[in-house]
Amino acid sequence: MVTRPAPREETTMHDHRKLGRELGLFDTDPLIGAGLPYWLPDGAIVRHTLEEYIRDAERRAGYRHVYSPVLGKRELYEISGHWSHYSDDMFPPMDLGSEQVVLRPSLCPHHAVIYRSRSRSYRELPLRMAELGGMYRSEPSGVLGGLTRVRAIQLNDAHIFCTLDQVAEEARAALEMIRRAYGALGIDAARYRLSLPGPGGKYVAAPEMWERATVLLTEVLDRSGVAYEAAEGEAAFYGPKIDIQVADGAGRESTLSTVQVDFHQPRQFDLHYIGADGARHRPVMVHRSIIGSVERAVAHLIERHGGAFPAWLAPTQVVILPITEDELPDAAALARRCAELGLRAEVAGPGRGSLGARVREARLVPYQAVIGAKEAATGEVALRLRDGRRLDPRPAADALARIGALVRSRSTDLWDAAVA
Q1: In the predicted model, what is the mean pLDDT of the chain?
Q2: Angle between helix 41-60 and 294-305 (nearest 10)
Q3: Distance between CA atoms of 289 and 155, rounded to whole angstroms?
Q4: Is the pTM of this model over 0.70?
Q5: Helices in 12-40 by DSSP H: which ranges?
Q6: Among the four residues 126, 128, 184, 367, which has the most C-beta atoms within 10 Å?
Q7: What is the pLDDT of residues 146-163, one digit of tens each?
């Protein structure tokens, strides 16, 4: 039997800056600096879990992960074009003897260098290279805010080196990865945008490359069946891109995910592969980010869910509520079983107030396991779900098995209705 609460209309507009601090997810300090938030333990759990989800999704899709340094010689960014087109957003170079090094504003130049570290064959393509790496942007103080605009960014980035006839399928597959990720995270795209160059911008002067890349991305969007809009002035300096926009409670949009086609950097870094004909050919570079920056993704998740994250992402997944002190040993044993199953659990004992007060305190936790004298005697738990549903007492092993299955599947459902 499931007891369901009366439906209620959600009218709250969440501000991730306020809620993130109230929930102990992240904070800032003037001594560290503006635009440089630090992650508190619960926020670090959300971030780590999100990063592991992305890495797992990428591994399943055939990506190989790399690590690259957050610094690079100025010459690296001169070759890539960042120095001439993007230096206003970069931190000043640092002198190291006779060389100058720069905090990187992007990961793609490093990945291009990794690609060219040895000869490549057409049989290796598409080569999908991914990294969750740090990068830095010299953002003006006036635009910094919470996690949405920061100066130190952890970017979910990937670059696919492929032949021209592989580009469309790789871009389509990237859009599908983004769609699945949004489903697991319980978020929606506000709109898809084909971002094109605009007048007055600092863009690579290569009309043929721009035209080819634009045609490819347009075909991908048309075949995907999603509605999209073209927007001038939103392209990267080296090429057009597909931007997936999300919106906050006030309707303000930001870019969360991107797919880009780049003919420029393979030429700049003289990238090539040996084709079936034995000759050298230039690969195409597809830039792809499932969730963009981890910071912006978490900010959107906080605002979208109000801190009530999907169960697989929640800092605490199960809170155990012994009714009296007598049930504390049973609660501790249940917490240990949760840990063995990989579930994040904590015990909220009577010392923290009445049962009603503890239930209210744990309102954002997906599962509340109540243990009274009867449950302790029979090895059962009475589950309360975050959405207000109450389940009849059931064996603790069965309850944890069902919770574990939902968490492992990264479902946004709190319970399987068929077995409720």
Answers
A1: 92
A2: 110
A3: 8
A4: yes
A5: 16-22
A6: 367
A7: 999 999 999 999 999 999
